[in-house]
Amino acid sequence: MDPLKAAAAAGTGAVLLGGGGWGLSMALSNNSMPDYVPLTNPTGTYFTDNKDYFAAVNGNENWWRWSYKNRWSVKKPTTGKFQNVTSGDGDKDSIKKVCEDAYTKGTDDISANATNDKYLESEVWYFCSAVEEKPKTISQVAEEKKIYDAINNSYGKEKASNLVAVTGNDSFWLEQERLFFKEENKSDRSGAKASETGNPLFRNLFAKRNKTREEQDTLRNACKEAYKSNKDESVEGNKVQEADVLKFCSVKGE
User: Fold this and answer.
1) What is the crossing angle of helices 170-180 and 242-249, to 10°?
2) Taking the model in full, what pTM does it have?
3) Residue 214, class by beta-carbon neighbours within 10 Å (0-12 exposed, 13-18 middle, 19+ buried)?
4) Which member of 54, 56, 88, 151 lies 3.0 to 4.6 Å from 65 by CB, making a disulfide possible if both were Cys?
5) DSSP per residue, 54-70
6) Is the pLDDT of residue 29 over 60?
7) Is 211:18 a contact under the CB 8 Å cutoff?
8) Tens digit of each residue's pLDDT (9 = 90 or more) over 31-51
9) What angle do CA 168, 31, 124 make, to 5 degrees?
10) Would you kindly state where each structural domain of the chain is located, as residue ranges?
11) What's the gap between Cα 90 and its chain centre?
């Protein structure tokens, strides 16, 4: 099977309900995660370019409790910064307090490998963000990269290091779609912010927000289509706007 087709089918659920809500299988696969207020302006830290997915310290008590119950309690670390956690949102030894400290750290203080004095990157994503693991970009997924490399001027080729691969990354796409179908004033990734000119790929998907959506009507599939499109399309009506592709299909959003 085409790896892109397989990826698009994975983790998206069989039925998507109208009203802007999650589909049943989407909600179940995310253990009914509560909504959260994301970080704002963590300038000069590891979180500068991925702030939309990390829960802010204040105003997210339900989310911190959820993380403790559904993540920490299920996958208790035996080493590292999170090993001595005893609650989700307490004033001491809580996931919230550990994440609060992590949010002040630069990229050099958050490591992909376990060390005594640094935060483990995988744990920061797992316990502090809505996304279970750091998403991989197209450039990090060889089989998918090969497909776009064969399409001259495609977004998937030219922006491979920015765009999230549709192969794998199930948790990211689950959360990205949830943010996409939010109202404009409740999410910087809302599809209501899609460009009003050019190819209506993302506008058309968002227009189905209050309707029953078919299996193929997912943000993951829309991004897959955008990745194959010509970045330098000369016919304005056919061009998928770069700002849209980055906003809806990348971690940084721009």
Assistant:
1) 120
2) 0.87
3) exposed
4) 88
5) BB-SSS-HHHHHHHIII
6) no
7) yes
8) 689 999 999 988 999 999 999
9) 60
10) 3-25+134-249, 34-128
11) 27
